Amino acid sequence: MDFLDLLLKKRDGGKLTSEEIDWIVRNYVDGEVPDYQMSALLMAIYFNGMDGQETKSLTESMANSGGTLDLSRVTGFKVDKHSTGGVGDSVSLVLSPLVASLGMKIGKLSGRGLGHTGGTIDKLESIPGFQVDLSNEEFVSAVEDKGLAIMEHTLDLVPADQKLYALRDVTGTVESLPLIISSIMSKKIACSPDGVVLDVKVGKGAFMKSMDDATALGRGCREVGELFGLNVTALVTDMNQPLGNSAGNALEVEEAIRVLKGDVESDLAEVSINLAAELYLQSGGIDSLAGAVEEARRRITSGDALEKFSDMVEGQGGDPRIIDDFGFLPGAENERTVYASGSGYVEEVDALKVGRAAGALGAGRKEKGDVIDPGVGVRIEKRVGDEAHEGDPLARIYYNDDADLDRAVTLMEEAYSVADEKPEERELIKRRIR
Ligand code: URA
């Protein structure tokens, strides 16, 4: 086969066969196809799309591009969760101990943050001593014995996605439905869990800006999952404002612990509880969604989920004192407050700008390999719908280095808009795709 012929075929609106797609993926992973040619193909896919068969073939070839995670030794109902990426989104830190407290098993492979979105691995690494690079044996044993473990996604698993994602990130080809579906589902298929939930974010701070696109993504993932025998439920959730009140690694760990200590009224708790409830329903442990939500909420208020979190922290070498005393988490030396310049109601807290502000302070990476500062970030004091008077604190900025402080302050000021009218209440969980 010749790459250029396949590229021209796709550019001109043709359909690639399974063999052709498999050849492309294998040769790209092996380094036989250069990035510049692959970039052109990604752009052709971005504009011309892929049909169901092509998307399935791409997913399968990517899933088979490296090793697989063998959790067959783990007993019970094994689950996995994936988010399409948001700001202030520490759901994995709440959901993992929560599902373990409901009797399910979760072995989660997570990534680092890139761009304006955070990554679970960076957040966990802000806990002093926490190990994210477990051996397969340590990981599988932790999942079996404690019910949960989270470690870093290794290059060995689905290398096609790691290479392609990095290339898409710098070639303007992230926001393509077949490319996102194959990226997400190849990683799920390589781990073969019994149940999967997807948190498909929609809104300004998300890849999917419209409900139609977010719904198509959820449905597409579900359909591809079904072809490979995976049970997938997707929730479409709001990302027009940050999910939690914090953006920054240690700050988000602290916020997740507050939820696990019983703060179940927040948006972060609501999304985590509903995702856990969907998995509980899939597991057959209960037969109604309302009952599953109630039980998940109870596992938080009873302290069971917090106990599982503590088990994970200790099991992976982290300092458990962070749970009772946030002073053991890394912090920032300086604080700057952003005040309301007028009075009214908060109409918007632009999640993208909040994420960028945290990134500017050093909480995120501009490029792969950048060193991050785990103690910095921003905390939102007012959310959409809250009343604000001139001079009220809207947000606080925690920083160590003031090199990009002005940019972060400007971004936070721009993130907020305050209007006379109270905005209509937004639904947090917008759609369930089962
Ligand atoms: N999350 C993924 O894992 N892949 C994408 O392409 C987008 C979001």
Structural features, described:
The protein is globular. It has 16 helices and 13 strands. The chain folds into three domains: 3-49, Transferase, Pyrimidine Nucleoside Phosphorylase, Chain C (Transferase, Pyrimidine Nucleoside Phosphorylase, Chain A, domain 3), CATH 1.20.970; 78-323, Nucleoside phosphorylase/phosphoribosyltransferase catalytic domain (Pyrimidine Nucleoside Phosphorylase, Chain A, domain 2), CATH 3.40.1030.10; 330-419, Alpha-Beta Complex (Aldehyde Oxidoreductase, domain 3), CATH 3.90.1170. It has 434 residues and is an alpha/beta fold. Helix 2 packs parallel to helix 4 and helix 5 crosses helix 14. The strands form three sheets. A six-stranded mixed beta sheet has the order 3-2-1-4-5-13, sandwiched between helices. Strands 6-9-11-7 form a four-stranded antiparallel beta sheet, with helices on both faces. The chain has a three-stranded antiparallel beta sheet with strand order 10-8-12. The structure holds uracil. Uracil binds at residues 84-85, 165, 174, 179-180, 183-184, 207.
Q: In summary, what is this structure?
A:
The protein folds into three domains: 3-49, Up-down Bundle (Transferase, Pyrimidine Nucleoside Phosphorylase, Chain A, domain 3), CATH 1.20.970; 78-323, Pyrimidine Nucleoside Phosphorylase, Chain A, domain 2 (3-Layer(aba) Sandwich), CATH 3.40.1030.10; 330-419, Pyrimidine nucleoside phosphorylase-like, C-terminal domain (Aldehyde Oxidoreductase, domain 3, Alpha-Beta Complex). Helix content is 44%, strand content 16%. It has helices at residues 3-11, 18-29, 35-48, 52-63, 91-101, 120-125, 136-146, 159-169, 177-189, 211-227, 249-260, 267-283, 289-301, 304-315, 351-361, 405-415, and strands spanning 78-83, 105-110, 148-152, 195-202, 232-238, 246-247, 334-339, 344-349, 377-380, 387-388, 393-399, 416-419, 429-433.
